[in-house]
Every structure is written in C-alpha cells, then in structure tokens.
Amino acid sequence: MKKIVAVLLVMMVYAGLALAVEKVKDIRFIAHKNGTVFDAKMNLTWAAKDNGSDINWENAQSYCENYRGGGYTNWRMPTQDELKGLFDSSIIGNDDYHLTPLITLTASCLWASETRRNAAAYFNFRYGTRHLTHQSNNLNGRVLPVRDNK
Predict the structure, then answer these.
(1) Bridge partners of residue 110, in order along the sequence
(2) pTM here?
(3) Which residues contact 141 (CB under 8 A, 6 or more apart)?
(4) What is the structure's pLDDT at 22?
(5) Which secondary structure element, helix H or strand E, spans residue 37, and what is its range?
(6) What domains can be seen in the chain, in order of their start residue?
(7) CA 128 to chain centroid
(8) What gap in Å lies between CA 65 and CA 45, rounded to an integer?
(9) pLDDT, tens digit, for every residue of 90-133?
(10) CA atoms of 50 and 107, how far apart (whole Å)
(11) In this structure, are residues 134 and 100 in contact, taking their beta carbons and an 8 Å threshold?
C-alpha cells in the first residue's frame, strides 16, 4: 500500500511539473504559461498575442527585437512565409482570423520582415493574402514576434 501511495505521489509531482509548463495544446501547437506558443510543424515559438495596437514597420521591428516573452531574448519579426505557415483556412479563430485560437490577434494584418525600398510586407489573416504597403503606415498593423528553436 505504501508503494502505491509513493508511486501516485511521484506521478502527481511529474504531472504538476508538466502542467506548470504547458497550458493548452492541440495536434500542432502547445501554449505555455509563459506567454509563448510552440509550433511543432515549423519548429518555431510564437508570442501568444500580438503587440495589441497600431504600429508601423520600423517600430514593429524594434518591438520584436526588444520583446522578452518567456524570458527569451532572441525574438525577431517573422517572414511572410512563416506567417503564411500559421494561416489555416479550416480554422476560424478569434475575430474570424484563420489561425490557431491559441494565438490572439487584435487585427487581421501582421507585419513581416521583408522590405522593398520604402515598402514593407504584411500578411492578412482574414483572407490569407500577402501585401506590401509603405513602412510608415500604421493603420491596423500589428506584429507577432517569433523565435527559432535551436
């Protein structure tokens, strides 16, 4: 009887440790309590939510470089291909945005790292489309930091 109780206690401790790290998961994504979401398909870690307000491209880049979510320091602005990789037309998440509900967006358009002269790329999560606009534009632009898992 004592052995059974001891085994159960050990199992409860390990389960508690796992719950302290993992918050929610689905087949592809794991949301952690530290405000990050691991993407197993792309082997990337995303911020669990965007920056939350209008931002131009230059400030978005700075926001990502200075982001410290989950205690990490190697955050960056995602590429259009990485943002496209998050898009899933079969999912209708928050505000009709097509991505996992484990990531919260406050607008449909997210800045991407690519630029051409004074234009910068962004991705629309309502329609799954890629666009360019002037880097100084901040109307409904948001950013979602990403980091590589090395």
Answers:
(1) 123, 142
(2) 0.83
(3) 54, 55, 56, 57, 60, 107, 109, 110, 111, 122, 133
(4) 63
(5) strand 36-39
(6) 41-148 (3.10.100)
(7) 16
(8) 14
(9) 998 778 899 999 999 999 999 999 999 999 999 999 999 999 99
(10) 9
(11) no
